[in-house]
């Protein structure tokens, strides 16, 4: 039975079209995934279904929930439907809850605002749904505040709020994108269970094809505000009639081939490194406590080797990265590059530092918006005793830009003139310009769309062929690390729990934590097998 | 919560100690011997010496500082050089005007600003918002003492609803006292209300863009319900900061406004003391004002913790 | 360009021009008394009337603008010159003892409103326009220090600053090269706001006799002189008041306009 049907929906803001002619349906008890890259209009589709579009957005077409056209309803009736017949879960659990009210209040509010039950009963129901989403009373009484919960736990509270009145339709907009893989797996499991138990329809928005393949009954692929392909998930993935679907799938499964690494010769040695943070005092006169973010980590990175460092948020991988770069003091152990310690005392040494560079995650925050590209990428020249000048400098800039697939003419532009992928290329150019011996990639492709990510991975592989590149690739994304590194370190709670050849670690993980990480990571289905099962 | 309060209390005491040292040192720089000034140029050396002893001026500086602070803690602010009466009594009498005036104004300002700010935020970009913003833009630009003069001109001189100034004293009854303080309080409150309303509006508008407001709407709350149930309490955090700051402006402002209405408050006391070079009175009044500002900021810190559970659970 | 910015800049420019022109020309000599012509209403000769001594109010307003603008401008200068480096230093050494010391010092200065500082200075050194400058200037220091530190702190977390640190640049150099240029817009906007607050504060201090002393004309003094005459000659109180309001309004509109014009996202998000 069709629960939701979006018919020929078009959206525009100030005459700029956002969606054109989007149609899709969700049946009761069915999971429909809308997928696509940024700018595809998938989130706007979700927001229009619950009637929470930004002001001044003009909508045409029809959105029928149980036959009733939501676009034709006045705001008052929409309020009566939201939270009652339609619930919604958002992407950012850390900010989705009101910080100054208890979780019990916030869950009960869904019930009270619809006057569905008297207050005591509403609180009892709030308790019941919190139990149901995996927040038992002993550890999560109704009086807890959001800041006392982790991201995954907060997302459970948001889900509890959305399902408190057993809506017929649940909308989830990238509900696990901000979460770690193991938490993501649990939340997806929870959503699946709720759909089965309550017979809800679930409209799920996600950029991650692997999640879609795992979860959805049907799939809607969107690009530039249009639906390009739709159908039963396995059918769509097996046949992929539209070229964009094929491109998206190929980019998601993208693999690169690295040239073989030279024979091992140690470059970076990290030995027993310890990093403590001071905690705020818990008692007025007691000595302050410490949090040990990195607990005596040791590893060696060989010249020409591509080493991965994986782990979930809070495992200490970013802290370790900053310590290697000399951006943070360490409380124990040594870090040496090419035989020389990175720090003397707590100050980084210039002659060692000039041998390494870094590429950060955020393509928007990595550059001073007031400087032009030539100035941005030559900043590391500051580390050289005799930085190149004049035509030599120009040549270096041109070379760095061409190396990363940009043109010398880009040197005079400002950073806001570039797309996210181009900015990441500029960041790589900045890291390459001094020909450092070691580059650290700190979640360098995590913020990019899959197709752009595939291009950047190709660029890295090409650079490895052109130069002897040694890098440490820090990421939470297992599939990326698997293709772009020779060896991998797995980090958990400040310790390296497993290390080895990348392929070996991924195909037969030894440590239980590594196993759980790999189990939790959603994987794309094997197309050959699908095709064999579902011939055209 | 207790730990947090104790920590703030400790910082309050340190601030007070440092402030008292600063004030003491500045007054110490003043040229001239207070005893000599009091007795005039023809004073006998022995009378001078005995007066110096009586005023406690014959001991080392650090001892004088400790005596001053120790005395204040016990409610003894010393003796006025010109009136030869205890400074504490003079201040106590004047505080009966200044403190109620500042509180009256703070209450009025809050009562005006909260609804105005919330209303403007709720109708953001529409006519009502424009009107409130225009009025507050003007309100922020008006000097309070000039506004006070205009109020006198209109309500005291032309309409004769209020007296043009003076204060009957609280023994004439609460109503008579409040009546006399009404025009001064309005003059003080309106410009501050304009600032506060703008802060309230912009804090609320920031919060309207927060993710949890969208979550609230997804539960089925109307815009208005979401604003009241989830917006206002979060907006209180920045608004409280401004209220704390405003108290110091109101105290300072009340000193100026007292001049317009001929009110016998701290302002009159301190200006007389300045012209009479009665430094001990100036010193005590300044310390009292600074004490009030620091204490109010302490109370604001405590109020933060009541509004924001994140602060409560932190140390 | 937006309407606020244009209107605000025009109003501010009007008073700035009046102040500058007053150095070379005023309709009458603002110090010359002409008792027979006292308390005249505005007319063709005395455009804004005369005061109780027969002095030309239009001329006094022009010269008064000089005092107001000079005091407020120098006070903003003091606040910026000391507050911005303090804020940059505190942010560069975030979490250190020095940062803590600067911030506590700021809190302490905040406990002394301008009026209280002016009272202290006047009690010790006697009255004068310089007192007003110092009193308002001191109060401006923590304002600029705080706003600079707040904006700088969020910049220090940004990856482009990390990149500069990896490039081996010192904290001082990063502050000058990357932090300061990125907080300039914010400082310009705050500067106009403090400028307008300075004009209000100067008027208040002069009104109670803690600011400019006769014969230096100032708007606050003119209001103090007008007080006893407000019933018979309201224009004496109205005109300086309107001068203050229009100047402050102009500066505030200009500040709002600049904020929208320079960067719509200027209001640094609360962390």
Give a written overview of the molecule.
- The complex is a heterotrimer of chains A (536), B (315) and C (271).
- Chain A has 536 residues and is an alpha/beta fold.
- In chain A, a hairpin with a 2-residue loop joins strand 16 (343-344) and strand 17.
- The two termini of chain A are 27 Å apart.
- The mean pLDDT of chain A is 92.
- Chain B is an all-alpha fold.
- Chain B has 13 helices and no strands.
- In chain B, helix 1 packs antiparallel against helix 12 (279-307) and helix 5 (87-122) runs antiparallel to helix 6.
- Chain B is globular.
- Chain C is an all-alpha fold and 271 residues long.
- In chain C, helix 1 (3-21) packs across helix 2, helix 7 runs parallel beside helix 8 (219-226) and helix 8 (219-226) runs antiparallel to helix 9 (235-262).
- Chains in contact: A-B, A-C, B-C.
- Chains B and C meet through helix 1, helix 6, helix 7, helix 10 and helix 11 of B and helix 3, helix 4, helix 7 and helix 9 of C.
Features:
heterotrimer; A: 536 residues; alpha/beta; Rossmann fold; 2 domains; six-stranded mixed sheet; B: mainly alpha; MetI-like fold; 13 helices; 79% helix; P-loop_NTPase (chain A); nucleotide-binding (chain A); AAA+_ATPase (chain A)
Question: Helices, strands, pairings?
Answer:
The complex is a heterotrimer of chains A (536), B (315) and C (271).
Chain A: E1 2-13, E2 16-27, E3 31-35, H1 42-50, E4 57-65, E5 68-69, H2 75-81, E6 86-89, H3 103-113, H4 119-132, H5 151-163, E7 169-173, H6 181-198, E8 201-206, H7 209-215, E9 218-223, E10 226-232, H8 233-239, H9 243-252, E11 266-278, E12 290-302, E13 306-310, H10 317-324, E14 332-337, E15 340-341, E16 343-344, E17 347-348, H11 350-353, E18 356-359, H12 373-377, H13 390-403, H14 420-432, E19 438-442, H15 450-466, E20 471-475, H16 478-484, E21 487-492, E22 495-501, H17 502-507, H18 512-520, H19 527-533
Parallel strand pairs in A: 3-8, 3-9, 6-7, 7-8, 13-20, 13-21, 18-19, 19-20
Antiparallel strand pairs in A: 1-2, 1-4, 4-5, 9-10, 11-12, 11-14, 14-15, 16-17, 21-22
Helix pairs in contact in A: 3-4, 3-5, 4-5, 5-6, 6-18, 8-19, 9-15, 13-14, 14-15
Chain B: H1 2-29, H2 34-39, H3 45-54, H4 61-73, H5 87-122, H6 127-141, H7 144-158, H8 174-208, H9 211-218, H10 223-261, H11 266-275, H12 279-307, H13 309-313
Chain C: H1 3-21, H2 57-92, H3 97-110, H4 114-125, H5 129-156, H6 159-166, H7 171-207, H8 219-226, H9 235-262
Helix pairs in contact in C: 1-2, 1-9, 2-3, 2-5, 2-7, 3-5, 4-5, 5-7, 7-8, 7-9, 8-9
């Amino acid at each position: 039975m069709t629960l939701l049907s979006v018919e020929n929906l078009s959206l525009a803001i100030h005459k700029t079209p956002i969606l054109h002619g989007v149609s899709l349906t969700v049946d009761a008890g069915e999971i429909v995934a809308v997928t696509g890259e940024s700018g595809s209009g998938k989130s706007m589709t979700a927001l229009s279904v619950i009637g929470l579009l930004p002001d001044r957005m003009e909508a045409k077409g029809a959105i029928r929930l149980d036959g009733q056209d939501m676009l034709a309803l006045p705001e008052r009736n929409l309020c009566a439907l939201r939270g009652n017949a339609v619930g919604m879960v958002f992407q950012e659990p850390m900010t989705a809850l009101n910080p100054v009210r208890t979780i019990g209040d916030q869950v009960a509010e869904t019930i009270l605002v619809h006057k569905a039950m008297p207050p005591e009963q509403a609180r009892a129901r709030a308790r019941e749904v919190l139990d149901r989403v995996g927040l038992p009373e002993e550890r999560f009484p109704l009086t807890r505040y959001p800041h006392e919960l982790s991201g995954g736990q907060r997302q459970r509270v948001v889900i509890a709020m959305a399902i408190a009145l057993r809506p017929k339709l649940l909308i989830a907009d990238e509900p696990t994108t901000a979460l770690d893989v193991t938490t993501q797996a649990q939340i997806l499991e929870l959503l699946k269970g709720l759909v089965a138990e309550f017979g809800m329809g679930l409209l799920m928005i996600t950029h991650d094809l692997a999640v879609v393949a795992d979860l959805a009954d049907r799939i809607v692929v969107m690009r530039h505000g249009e639906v390009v392909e739709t159908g039963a998930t396995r059918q769509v993935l097996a046949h992929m009639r539209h070229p964009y679907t094929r491109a998206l799938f190929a980019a998601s499964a993208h693999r690169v081939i690295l040239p073989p690494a030279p024979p091992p010769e140690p470059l970076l040695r990290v030995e027993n490194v310890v990093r403590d943070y001071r905690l705020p005092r818990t008692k007025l006169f007691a000595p302050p406590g410490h949090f040990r973010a990195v607990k005596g980590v040791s590893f060696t990175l060989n010249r020409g080797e591509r080493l991965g460092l994986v782990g979930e948020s809070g495992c200490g991988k970013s802290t370790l990265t900053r310590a290697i770069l000399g951006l943070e003091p360490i409380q124990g152990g040594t870090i040496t590059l090419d035989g020389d310690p990175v720090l003397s005392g707590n100050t980084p040494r210039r002659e060692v530092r000039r041998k390494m560079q870094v590429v950060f995650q955020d393509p928007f925050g990595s550059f001073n918006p007031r400087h032009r590209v030539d100035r941005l990428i030559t900043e590391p020249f500051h580390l050289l005793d005799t930085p190149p000048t004049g035509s030599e400098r120009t040549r270096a800039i041109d070379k760095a830009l061409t190396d990363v697939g940009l043109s010398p003419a880009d040197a005079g532009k400002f950073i806001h003139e570039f797309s996210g992928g181009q900015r990441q290329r500029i960041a790589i150019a900045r890291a390459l310009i001094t020909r450092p011996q070691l580059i650290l990639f700190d979640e360098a492709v995590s913020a990019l769309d899959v197709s752009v990510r595939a291009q950047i991975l190709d660029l890295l592989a090409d650079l490895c062929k052109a130069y002897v590149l040694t890098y440490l690739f820090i990421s939470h994304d297992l599939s990326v690390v698997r293709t772009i590194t020779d060896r991998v370190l797995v980090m958990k709670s400040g310790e390296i729990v497993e290390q080895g050849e990348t392929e070996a670690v991924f195909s037969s993980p030894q440590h239980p934590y590594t196993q759980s990480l790999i189990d939790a990571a959603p994987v794309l289905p094997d197309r050959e097998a699908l095709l064999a099962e579902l011939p055209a | 919560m207790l730990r947090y309060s104790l920590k703030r209390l400790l910082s309050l005491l340190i601030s007070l100690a440092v402030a008292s040292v600063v004030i003491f040192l500045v007054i110490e720089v003043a040229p001239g011997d207070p005893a000599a000034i009091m007795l005039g140029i023809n004073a006998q050396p022995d009378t001078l010496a005995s007066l110096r002893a009586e005023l406690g001026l014959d001991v080392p500086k650090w001892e004088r500082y400790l005596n001053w602070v120790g005395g204040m803690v016990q409610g003894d602010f010393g003796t006025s050089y010109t009136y030869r009466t205890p400074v504490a009594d003079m201040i106590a009498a004047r505080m009966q005007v200044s403190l109620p005036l500042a509180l009256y104004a703070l209450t009025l300002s809050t009562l005006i600003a909260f609804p105005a700010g919330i209303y403007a935020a709720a109708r953001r970009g529409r006519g009502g918002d424009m009107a409130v913003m225009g009025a507050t833009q003007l309100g922020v630009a008006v000097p309070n003492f000039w506004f006070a003069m205009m109020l006198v001109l209109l309500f005291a001189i032309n309409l004769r609803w209020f007296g043009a100034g003076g204060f009957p004293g609280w023994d004439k009854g609460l109503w008579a006292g409040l009546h006399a303080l009404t025009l001064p309080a309005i003059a003080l409150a309106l410009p501050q209300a304009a600032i506060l309303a703008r802060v309230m509006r912009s804090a609320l508008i920031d919060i309207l863009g927060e993710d949890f407001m969208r979550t609230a709407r997804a539960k089925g709350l109307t815009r208005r319900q979401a604003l009241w149930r989830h917006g206002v309490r979060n907006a209180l955090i920045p608004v409280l900061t401004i209220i704390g700051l405003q108290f110091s402006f109101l105290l300072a402002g009340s000193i100026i406004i007292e001049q317009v209405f001929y009110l016998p408050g701290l302002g009159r006391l301190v200006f007389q003391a300045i012209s009479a070079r009665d430094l001990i009175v100036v010193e005590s009044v300044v310390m009292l004002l600074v004490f009030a500002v620091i204490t109010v900021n302490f109370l604001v810190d405590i109020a933060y913790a009541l509004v924001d559970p994140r602060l409560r659970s932190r140390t | 360009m937006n309407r606020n910015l244009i209107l605000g800049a025009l109003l501010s420019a009007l008073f700035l021009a009046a102040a500058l022109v007053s150095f070379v020309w005023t309709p009458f000599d603002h110090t010359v008394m002409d008792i027979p012509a006292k308390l005249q209403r505005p007319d063709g000769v005395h455009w804004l009337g005369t005061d109780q001594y027969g002095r030309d109010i239009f001329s006094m307003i022009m010269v008064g603008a000089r005092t107001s603008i000079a005091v407020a401008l120098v006070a903003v200068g003091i606040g910026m010159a000391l507050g911005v480096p303090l804020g940059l230093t505190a942010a560069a050494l975030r979490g250190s003892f020095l940062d803590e010391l600067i911030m506590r010092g700021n809190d302490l200065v905040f406990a002394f409103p301008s009026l209280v500082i002016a009272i202290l200075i006047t009690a010790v050194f006697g009255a004068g326009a310089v007192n007003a400058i110092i009193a308002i200037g001191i109060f401006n220091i923590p304002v600029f220090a705080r706003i600079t530190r707040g904006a700088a702190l969020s910049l220090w977390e940004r990856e482009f600053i990390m990149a500069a640190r990896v490039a081996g640049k010192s904290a001082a150099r990063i502050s000058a090269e990357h932090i300061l240029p990125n907080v300039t817009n914010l400082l310009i906007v705050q500067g106009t706001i403090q400028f307008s607050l300075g004009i209000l504060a100067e008027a208040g201090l002069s009104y109670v006799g803690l600011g400019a002393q006769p014969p230096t004309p100032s708007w606050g003094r003119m209001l103090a002189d007008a007080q006893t005459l407000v019933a018979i000659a309201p224009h004496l109180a109205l005109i300086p008041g309107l001068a203050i309001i229009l100047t402050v309004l102009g500066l505030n509109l200009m500040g709002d306009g600049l904020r929208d014009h320079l960067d719509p996202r200027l209001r640094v998000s609360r962390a």
